[in-house]
Amino acid sequence: MVEDLFPVLLPTQPSPEFTVPDGLCWFSVLSCLLLACSYVGSLYVWRSDLPRDHPTVIKRRFTSVLIVSCLSPLFVWAWREFTGVRTNSSLLALMGIRLDGLIPAIVLPLLLTMVLFLGPLMQLAIDCPWTFIDGIRVAFDPSFWMLCLGDMRWLRNQVVAPFTEELVFRACMLPMLVPCAGPAAAIFTCPLFFGVAHFHHVIELLRFRQGTMSGIFISAVFQFSYT
């Protein structure tokens, strides 16, 4: 039940059962699609002949993506106002930004991520010439982190992209999908928008001829299924 798993999505008016308004699902899906297109489209507002890994391109895309991410809560607000779905919580709480349940929300995804990357981490530990103590020393070495923070690709892959993608494709889309699809369906539907959004890499790979057409599309399909 939506009421049990997502209490912030409870309708404010007392009713024995939550009734999905007519057209809510279509409007929710279109809103998520528009939000995804806005995120991906912001990457291409800058005209450039440089590849995506060039520092200038990365900095420009940082700007546009951060702007879209800051505006993304407005999509949820507009969706709520247009559909008339009222909740017992604030907009931030609706997006999952709240103190209630904060510790499990941090620990459980972290454990899941560790399990997901356990294989590559074990392979890295086997192939890496460093000892465990060497790895600990590097992790606590300030110069190592300064080097990372000065690398635009590292900032994109480890900081900006994960933060903005989670905000846009999860925090903002789930509240719009749960009332019409339910928690279980919304959890499995939400990543589809994220996966489809990654197909834009095909454009750049074909543009700079970084592989064969079949190889590029196979890679895109694999990335879609993985995400």
TrEMBL record:
Topology of this chain in the membrane: Multi-pass membrane protein
GO cellular component, as recorded: endoplasmic reticulum membrane
UniProt KW Transmembrane keyword: yes
Transmembrane segments: 26-46, 62-82, 102-126, 167-194
Origin superkingdom: Eukaryota
Domain CAAX prenyl protease 2/Lysostaphin resistance protein A-like intervals: 154-222
Main subcellular location of this protein, as a coarse class: endoplasmic reticulum
EC number: 3.4.26.1
GO biological process: CAAX-box protein processing
Signal peptide: none
Entry's Gene Ontology molecular function annotations: metalloendopeptidase activity
Catalytic activity as recorded in UniProt: Hydrolyzes the peptide bond -P2-(S-farnesyl or geranylgeranyl)C-P1'-P2'-P3'-COOH where P1' and P2' are amino acids with aliphatic sidechains and P3' is any C-terminal residue
Pfam families: Rce1-like
InterPro entries for this protein: Rce1, Rce1/LyrA-like_dom
Subcellular localization(s) per the UniProt record: Endoplasmic reticulum membrane
Keywords: Endoplasmic reticulum, Hydrolase, Membrane, Protease, Transmembrane, Transmembrane helix
Enzyme class: hydrolase
Similarity remark: Belongs to the peptidase U48 family.
Protein known as: CAAX prenyl protease 2
